[in-house]
Amino acid sequence: MTDFFQNGSITTLHNLSRRPLEEMERELIEFSRQRPMSLLLPSLYSELEGEALPNILDELSRVPYLSEIVIGLDRADESQYREAMRVFSKLPQHVRVLWNDGPRLRNLDAKLQERGLAPLEPGKGRNVWYCLGYILSSRRGEAVALHDCDIVTYDRSLLARLFYPVANPNFNYEFCKGFYSRVASGKINGRVCRLLVTPLIRTLKKIYGHTDYLNYMDSFRYALAGEFSFRRDVINDLRIPSDWGLEIGVLSEMYRNYSTNRLCQVDIAHSYDHKHQTVSFHDDQGGLSKMSIDISKSLFRKLATQGIVFSSEIFRSIKATYFRIALDFVETYRNDAIMNGLDFDIHKEEQTVELFARNLMKAGQTFLENPMETPFIPSWSRITSAAPEFLMELNEAVEADFQEFSP
What InterPro entries has UniProt attached to this entry (predicted)? Predict the structure, then answer.
């Protein structure tokens, strides 16, 4: 059971009473009459072969308040898409699977490329972006939630708690971020958040002093959580990165577009575990290594838009300050782990901090060398302005795939 402490600039909604799920779902059914709900699931085909998805589908099949479930499927050929359609057809809700590698959606992507409006690289950001476009076109949901398909500890109470703040018509929240304890298999997980994001934000605060943005980012208990919910109108002006900076980018966009009293975070799970990325010590194009570079660049870009000036000398100071703060955090987490009877490998933790410190310099150098880089996918407002027919064409393409390939 968590405490009720509030800190930072956004509201934290706790799990104070372990309220019965059935009671919360009854309220969500009532909310859905006024504010229908859509669930977005970005997925790789490989996740259909993983251990997590069967349980997720079993749990979702018992969710009574959803108007639609939209799955974005990446890295799938035709036979794999057909199999995905079969797997997801078990769900009783209105379900659509976006075949991102299929000819219809590829043709639409090519149309955007001709206008310089298409996502620049494949990945979760691109997948989520197209799904958001479909949700805009379907108009079935007023409240939208997103979570991944690799959560091995999933139960439907996570979804109920994630939806509740933006679905409740008596609340004024436009956006809600999920958080949870990243402890599983007898150890503390969440390395990128623990050892990179929090120490880096504290570093930037130390070097640049207090800024409202850094205080806002420091308010989130788990900034890299892949679970969040929002009202549908948020989608129109959302500009998201296509790389691993997705979660940081979304938080930054919400800060830009809304007052902080319209944003919150909610405790959605007592325990949480999912597929873990390798650290990738010797390859900065994969694993946590690439993730750390993309996330760092995302933070640097955002601060630059607020007038913060970076240079090679500043990045050397950031690296040195980060390294000291991160090592202090390692000691803190070690003591926390020992008190709770958890395993903790100081050597691996400090190796990871050393890698992240090197990658901060790589991210900084890339930032300085590419001042004209446009890392964000265009907002859907821009798409509909440049190509008013596009959302209708996207909807028709998804429906045509559904009609052709349904089992």
Answer: Nucleotide-diphossugar_trans
